[in-house]
Amino acid sequence: MKISPLELLLLEMSSGFYLGAFLLYLSELILSRPTRVPWAPVTAGVGGVLFQSLAIFIRFGFQGHVALLSLREVISFFSWTLVLAFLYLEHQKKVRILGLFIFAIAFLSTLLVIGISFHAPLFATKAPIGFLLSLHTILIDLGLASAALSFIVALLYLLLDFFLRRKIFNRFFSRMPSLETLDQLNTNFNGLGFVFLTTGLIFAMIWSWKKFGSTIPHASQGRLAFMGALFVWVAYAATVLLRWSRRFRGKQAAYLSISGFLIFAATMFALVFFSKGSHFIL
Amino acid sequence: MIKITLAGVNHKSAPVDVREKIAYPKEHLSPAVRILSREENVLECLILSTCNRVEILTITSNIHPDPDFFTSFLSRTHPALSSIPIRPHLYYKTDTEAVEHLYEVTASLDSMIVGEPQITGQVKEAFETCRQENTIGPYLNQIFQRAISTAKRVRSETAISHLPVSISYAACQLARKIFQDMSNKSVLLLGGGEMAQLTARHMKKMGVRSLTVMTRDPEKGKLLAAEYEASYAAMELLEETMAESDMVVCSTGAETYLLTVPVMEKAMERRDFRPLFLIDIAVPRNIDPEISRLSNTFLYNIDDLKSVVESNQKEREMETYAAREIVRQEIAQFQKRRAERSAVPLIQALRRHTEKLQQSEFDRFSRTLESLPEDTRKQVMILAQSLVNKMLHPTYQTLRNSSNLEEAWEWISRCYGLSPELLSQDNSSREEGGSADNKSSALDPARPDFPLPGEQSC
């Protein structure tokens, strides 16, 4: 099935808007004086997310079900979720510096999606995947986005901690929110990611039980996916549980979030490359 | 033509022993302004007196008061000054230069600490004092309104005032980089040094939940606690108090470390490893620098805070370029408005001349006009008026935009055959009729019954 030219055009437009938002946030960081149009980067981000929403809905309509099976679909949905989460955060907490990273990721993601669309424009469509699997894919993708946000916030935390300890007072430092804000965001995204991951896996197990009469798939590729998911879940559960320990505050919590996301992302990529199309379509 | 003149003494031009003699105490400012306003030719005046400067701004008619006028005024209002030669310390600026200087002063570009916010308030206060003494008229009013709005622009469009340049305030700004909400944070003031008190005062302003004072001398500590609405704790309770505090400001006279790594490790354990901000302003230091290696503790000593201040000062200096650009834009606007206002009497004179011509032509053709029906006669008169307005409009524009009014007027006089007395007639007729305020200058706004030419529909 070919990718609709309209979808491609919308993705290109959203990519342009994300680039614009990124450049505007970057200019805020580089220029010393306060911007005269503080709303401009957010507006560009909103423009980008609107075009990408249309592209995603067209994709879903084109496929006839929640289409998060191929790498390009997952990446597109992932960047869309990131931008939406950031826009909400920007409205609530005014963590503007996050915009620089989110829109860089969103721009590169949409560019990658467009690239994949050009190089691998065809893939065999399958029958609609049903409600349970749709929920599974959406929740796992949301979980990945939460883990990514937690990862970015944790990196910012470590950077600010480094600046404060080394007494480096540059423009990047002056634009950063407080350590406490970053720690709080880290905790929230981690918790949210864990909830999405757990419920996403539960829906996958229910689907497997309904279809095969067992929550553990028999096929080797399915088992690989299951083992990967279990590994991620255990690792993520450990990071969330460790955070409750009073010793794992601030810096230690940031390290945990970084490792949690890396395990999550690595497993997702392993599934893409090793499940031979049973779980993901490249 | 009105003249704007400014003379003054500031921290750059005079040492403190001269400045302190020239400064007007608050209660002496009003009488001094009253005396100045009674001087010959002074239409409007203002005196700005702060710890770093005394500036006198006057609006006069046709002539700039010379520097001696200001030195003599200062000597008369400050008898103690007679022994000090003021002239070498006095700076003297006129017209656009004077206004530019005032804009820079109000925007805190001429301050000892560039970007400090107090000066704008002091300028407003001086303006208010002079306004109450009726020494402020339309010119100074307009100049000061623009000065205040320029200061606002500088403050909002540059980062000149965003970065703290005092050690105590820098400490508070750093606290904001660690903590999100200050309303649930506790501060421990260890020792009663002046700098620590200043920091505590800033933190109180930031809205911290509680402040605890701990000193070796209980009497002094209790007094301090009462002054800052804080609680007092004895030195023996240091570990317990540390467990509950989020920020510690240390400034005691002790010659050894009061807070050591083992003490801090215990305290961190008790406080569940929540972040702790430690400020050591004491010399010799009271907090072991090794503490900064502990996780979630952030230690800053006096040198660290000084480096914050220095880096902020450099940033502020960089911002002055952007700020001066804003001042330049505002000055360009001021010059444009001034040129427009200066052209008003000339435009009025030209208009009176054409009206006179128009009237004489109507008189010449009165018989013919009277023979016309009423409506037609009115239309002819409107036509004539409209024709004159349309023909004169480019001339008005030339006068308004002219950088050299005298040359433009000479050229226009030749073109229209205007007599040189036309302007003086205008002034004399106004002096005869306008007795309400004999200080009104030739460049006053047009009288309400005499609309500005060119503002009418042509």
- Tell me the number of strands of chain B: 10
- Structural class of the helices, strands and pairings of chain B? alpha/beta
Low-confidence stretches of chain B: 428-458
CATH structural architecture of the largest domain in chain B: 2-Layer Sandwich
Question: Helix and strand succession of chain B?
Answer: EHHEEHEHHHHEHEHEHEHEEHHHHH
Instruction: Tell me the fraction of residues in β-strands of chain A, as a range.
Output: under 5%
Question: Which bin fits the share of residues in helices of chain A?
Answer: over 70%
What is the strand and helix layout of this fold?
The complex is a heterodimer of chains A (282) and B (458).
Chain A: H1 5-30, H2 40-63, H3 71-93, H4 96-119, H5 130-166, H6 171-175, H7 179-212, H8 220-244, H9 251-274
Helix pairs in contact in A: 1-2, 1-4, 2-3, 3-4, 3-5, 5-7, 5-9, 7-8, 8-9
Chain B: E1 2-10, H1 16-22, H2 26-37, E2 42-49, E3 53-61, H3 67-77, E4 91-94, H4 95-106, H5 118-132, H6 138-157, H7 167-178, E5 186-190, H8 194-205, E6 210-214, H9 218-227, E7 231-232, H10 238-244, E8 247-250, H11 261-270, E9 276-280, E10 297-301, H12 302-364, H13 366-371, H14 374-401, H15 405-416, H16 421-433
Parallel strand pairs in B: 5-6, 5-8, 6-7, 8-9, 9-10
Antiparallel strand pairs in B: 1-3, 1-4, 2-3
Helix pairs in contact in B: 4-6, 4-12, 6-12, 7-8, 7-12, 10-11, 12-14, 14-15
Notable traits:
heterodimer; A: 0% strand; B: 458 residues; alpha/beta; Beta Polymerase, domain 2; Rossmann fold; six-stranded parallel sheet
Commentary on this structure:
The complex is a heterodimer of chains A (282) and B (458). Chain A is an all-alpha fold and 282 residues long. Chain A is built from 9 helices and no strands. Chain A folds into 2 domains: 1-128, Up-down Bundle (Four Helix Bundle (Hemerythrin (Met), subunit A)); 135-282. Residues 120-124 of chain A have low confidence and may be disordered. With 458 residues, chain B is of the alpha/beta class. The A-B interface holds A 32-34, 36, 160, 164-165, 167, 169, 173-174, 176-181, 184, 246-247, 249-252 and B 156-159, 162-163, 174, 176-181, 272-275, 292, 295-296, 298, 300, 304, 307-308, 311-312, 315, 318-319, 322.
